[in-house]
Amino acid sequence: MALSWALAALSLLPLLDAQSPVCANLTAEPITNATLDQISGKWFCIASAFHNPEVNQIAGTLQAGFFYMEPNHTNDIVLLRDYQTIGDKCVYNSSYLKVQRENGTLSKYESGEEQFADLLLTKDPKIFMFGHSLKDEQNKGLSFYADKPEVTEEQMRVFHEAITCIGMQKSEISYTDAKKVKARRTRQPRRPRQGERPRLHSEAGHPVFKRLSPCRDS
Known about the structure:
disordered N terminus; globular; 10 strands; 218 residues; 5 helices
């Protein structure tokens, strides 16, 4: 089963290096409607690092990935449509994330457990990160996303500094490479009909997985 970086691990607030601007901002803030609007739309998986070797190995199988997030302000949920290219195949996953506004986290049920991720915004609205189990030395990790499949050196530096902040090494980072992935069109999933009550992952049982051709950046 593909590892979805947006849905990994339990999250807690990190112990930060206050002398670094990146470290000082590496804290989940309360989520507002404006926050949800900022993360709405299409995002690309750029890189991730997990201190757990097994999890990091799974994350490293992701050749490229992108996803769409469509927040619902009223119900505090986010429709996630996730496309991951793994082994020259596109794995599609559609699910709903729950929003914990005060805690600054998003969550989803995986294997019967609700898993949380800190939403970590930066000064650059074109990038953001998810923090995973940042107080758990064995399982801590970060995942990095951008509004384009490639990032600038400055944007990547933000992620590298964040990795250092949480006490991890750059050698633990896995990077995606969209250029090496053959682009072929995938069929778009059906969106919930107007007035239809969205089902959370815990209600739906298992997420919708479809193996398609390598995901097309569209």
